[in-house]
Amino acid sequence: MLALGKLLELTLAGREPAQKIQLTVDGVQMRWLSEGALEVRPPEAKDNGSDLLLSSGIHGNETAPIELLDRLLHGIARGEIKPRSRILFLFGNPEAMRRGERYLELDVNRLFNGRHEKNIGPEAMRAAELEQLARSFFSLPGRSRLHYDLHTAIRGSKIEQFALYPWKEGRQHSRHQLARLNAAGMQAVLLQNKTSITFTAFTYEQLDAEAFTLELGKARPFGQNQGVDVSRLETRLKQIIEGTEPETDSLDGLQLFAVSREVIKHSDAFLLHLPADVENFSPLAKGYLLAEDVAKTRWVIEEEGARIIFPNPKVKNGLRAGILIVPCGDGALA
Ligand SMILES: O=C(O)CCC(=O)N[C@@H](CCC(=O)O)C(=O)O
Ligand SMILES: [Zn+2]
């Protein structure tokens, strides 16, 4: 296998490859751009005009998505997967990956869309670099742009695999993209309704990409992901890469949710009234006191059919400590 196919090994070892550009037997170019960043270019005659950004390791302890991208890269470097798309592979937070931690000082996935400029330290610099790498990758005109940012969650989930779809004023969520996600094994999609500071919010809002955060199961250390079944997503990604993706427009079985409210932690007095092992998508009854914070702030459930995802009272003050979601229809899709 070409040495650049071993991007994960290089990244975990903190090594820069001696040779930055390599060609596979089929003339596919692999180009190392920076730590944890590698571009794949099909030969011009094979290029189908689509650009695909695949990122993982934005949270360093979310290893199933990192292993999935590693397998795809190996397949390309060995000539077993024959790309017709340009691809940018990114491992988001290499130092956190080496330490097996979500982040060191700052959550990289809260540092996009300008937030890195208001912070200092390695993670703020990395977010700026990731923005630059994505901006440059998606700068070619007339090509389709797709970004999947792959994650696993801190806790178990009543719905194992789901996507979060960013939002931008004046732009409609795409039915075709949801059908694609359905075919890739996602069981639910959360349609956002405001701007955000995540990586996919940046590529969606600023780079005009279709962009999704994909949650694939529960976070576990490297080599312990047998319980995370990414086979349907992996098959679909190979098809997208090779330009052999079957057409689909079916949303059958896909559950759609809208954000009702984001629960923001304002102070150290924040209290979340949920068991530590509560699962994502757990239903919450109307009238339930979900959280309390400074100045007698109370979060009481008012919504019919409310559920909670990503509850986390340990986030830094000012950040999201959970999302309250409600079921929604597909009427607003383009
Ligand atoms: O399990 C959790 O609480 C977090 C899992 C995770 O990392 N999720 C992403 C979602 C990003 C988005 O909102 O699009 C995150 O919190 O960064
Ligand atoms: Zn994550």
TrEMBL record:
Binds 1 zinc ion per subunit. It catalyses: N-succinyl-L-glutamate + H2O = L-glutamate + succinate. This is Succinylglutamate desuccinylase. Its EC number is 3.5.1.96. It holds the Pfam family AstE_AspA_hybrid. Keywords: Arginine metabolism, Hydrolase, Metal-binding, Zinc. One of its GO terms (molecular function) is succinylglutamate desuccinylase activity. The lineage of its organism: Bacteria, Pseudomonadati, Pseudomonadota, Gammaproteobacteria, Pseudomonadales. It comes from Pseudomonas pergaminensis. Residues 49-239 form the Succinylglutamate desuccinylase/Aspartoacylase catalytic domain.
